[in-house]
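Much of our argument rests on the idea that a fold can be written as discrete symbols. In the encoding step, the backbone of a single protein was reduced to a row of integers, each denoting a local shape. This step matters because it turns folding into a mapping between discrete strings. For completeness, the protein is quoted in full, as a sequence line and a line of structure tokens:
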Amino acid sequence: MKPIKVNADYEITLFENKSPPKVINHSLEFLALYLENRPLVTDKFYSKNFIEHVTQISGSVPSFSNEVEFENWWGSLKNIPLEKKLNSKLFSSRFTPGLQVISDISHLNIQEGQIYLAKNPFGMSGQNFVKFQKGEEYELLPQLKKSKSLLIEPFLDRKKDFSHYVFPDGTYIGYENIVDDRFQYKGSIFTNLNDPSFKSLSFYHEVSKSEWDRFENEFQSIREAMKSEGAIEGYSVDSFTYFEDGKLKIRTCSEINYRKTMGLVTWLLSKKYANDNQSSMLILSHSLKSSGEFSTIKSLQGCLHLSPGDTRFEIYFIAASDSEKLKEKFHELKILLPDGQFSVEI
């Protein structure tokens, strides 16, 4: 079996061509131990307690490798020009009218009183963005000097984030994403594992049918465009709802990630560990910064502590019979853990 490397530093490697901090891969690579039987290429030490913990959950003893020949698990890095193009926010911006791409602040076309976001077109989600308005253009200079160009978009009254992961065969799944106030990823939720579509999202009925119809047409156009560009790997289309003119609207394409995503990992964990439960969640918390914490949640049925206890954040998987029971289990988990471990609510 060919070893795998969980290259969670994919975007940095792809766009910046430099050696990223090892902590990025260490923060996520252990997830593959619950899903794969192939050896994991890593330089991180995993304790005996953690290896036993994974073995008890997965039924397989994890194996590790230091081989130089391996398969990238997060992003393929096989067709660099194509992957750069499809992962760039410059590409995904094609599907959202009204966005600006600038290489100099003199090119800005912005309105008084409107707040804007400036994003690095080649950056990771939730990172390297600046919130500004007219008169504050100078705040863009450091980021513009670094990234050479910026994507400018109106700052919207964002409400709910969701994604669709499109598999290589064209089938897709929909799920809700949990983000913090800086749009950084904190978890994913499947309300109905038997029907993982946008119609099963918890907020589906809060949005008008005409808005969902528009979303469906635009989402189909994105899939057709990805296929025509030569996409052969899986990818996610990230979307969100926002409040404007007294009603909820949908931004169909916030960005496209031509690689694995945490939402996909949640789905794969659900297929393997949710059993007969209908709802599931992956949730991130602040790091416990200690090992041997796995017994903390053993009393909470349907909840798995996946992380080794010494990484940047903890990751938990929860499954329940329905979405209300899922919320109850999340709140039970909060009680079992130290105060303030979660930076988001569901």
User: Anything to note?
Assistant: DSSP finds nine helices and 16 strands in the chain.
